[in-house]
Amino acid sequence: MIQNGETVLSNIIASQINSHRRFGGVVPEVASRHHVEQITLCLNEALTEAGVTPDQLQAVAVTYGPGLVGALLIGLSAAKAFAWAHGLPLIPVNHMAGHIYATRLVQPLKFPLLALLVSGGHTELVYMVEDGSYEIIGETRDDAAGEAYDKVGRVLGLSYPSGKELDQLAHQGEDTYDFPRAMLKEDNFDFSFSGLKSAFINLVHNAEQRGEVLDTANLAASFQASVVEVLVTKTIRACKTYPVKQLVIAGGVAANQGLREVMKLALAEELPELELVIPPLKLCGDNAAMIGAAAHVELQKQHVAAMDLNANPSLAFQHI
């Protein structure tokens, strides 16, 4: 529950991590069933915690993509029913825009800005000249950074989701394995992590076949050093190319301490006047508050959806 697009009155999260952990990743059918079980409970809890009744609400925000289609459809059905029952407008929100606007819950956005979005499914650089205006200037051509973290964590035998544990392990090791930095010197802002993932998996499997024992902490440190160097180098290059007042890092991988540390140091050295904004850890992962913050902007622009709004699992940013 969000007030004025920037004040969190309640932010209820029903985690499914324990259910998916035994499978080593998200199972769409399991995710959908959990949504069915929890969505009305979360809705009621959010109203109660915020101390708000439906007649005090201005609108209902809903994510319609990108994401797993089953989970999206359940969220859409619940939001439509609630909006219709209480005569409220339905505000469609791009899930990735929500990650950017999680930052607004901490401090105001300053335009023009650049956002580095890093999550399990997305890695992209988004240039914004104003609220609600998105221009993708760089994106991954294959795997997202978060996806590579999950696959590498599985190879190392870490529990799902492995990002936090892999980050902690990386801080205990050194970059000794010299993994590739794909597209680092190319004249664009795109990313690629598929080759890095393959190089890591091949190194580990080949060592196992030879009976060679590798240093797990150094493996983690080497992998993270490659990911972070590419993300930081490309982002700073983009910040030098585009006239920006603020750099936002958002998405689940924004919680990575290695990325945070290296980005802060690099900016202090190369662009000390540029403001870096990263949401607190509790707002980096998927949450309702960020969708409410993004919806406030859409409501001001009168972007209201009809009741036939459908899920779009491959939804992309629309440059306005």
TrEMBL record:
Keyword Acyltransferase: yes
Binding site for substrate: L117, V118, S119, G120, G121, D150, G163, D167, N256
EC number of the protein: 2.3.1.234
Domain of life of the organism encoding this protein: Bacteria
Cofactor(s), by name: Fe(2+)
Residues given in the record as Fe cation binding sites: H95, H99, D286
SUPFAM superfamilies to which the protein is assigned, alphabetical: Actin-like ATPase domain (SSF53067)
Catalytic activity: L-threonylcarbamoyladenylate + adenosine(37) in tRNA = N(6)-L-threonylcarbamoyladenosine(37) in tRNA + AMP + H(+)
Pfam families for this protein: TsaD
PROSITE patterns: GLYCOPROTEASE
Cofactor note: Binds 1 Fe(2+) ion per subunit.
Principal location class: cytoplasm
Alphabetical UniProt keywords: Acyltransferase, Cytoplasm, Iron, Metal-binding, Transferase, tRNA processing
Compartmental location: Cytoplasm
Record-annotated Gcp-like domain positions: 7-292
CDD domains named among the record's database cross-references: ASKHA_NBD_TsaD_bac
NCBIfam families: gcp_kae1 (TIGR00329), T6A_TsaD_YgjD (TIGR03723)
Family the UniProt entry places it in: Belongs to the KAE1 / TsaD family.
Function as written in the Swiss-Prot or TrEMBL entry: Required for the formation of a threonylcarbamoyl group on adenosine at position 37 (t(6)A37) in tRNAs that read codons beginning with adenine. Is involved in the transfer of the threonylcarbamoyl moiety of threonylcarbamoyl-AMP (TC-AMP) to the N6 group of A37, together with TsaE and TsaB. TsaD likely plays a direct catalytic role in this reaction.
Protein name: tRNA N6-adenosine threonylcarbamoyltransferase
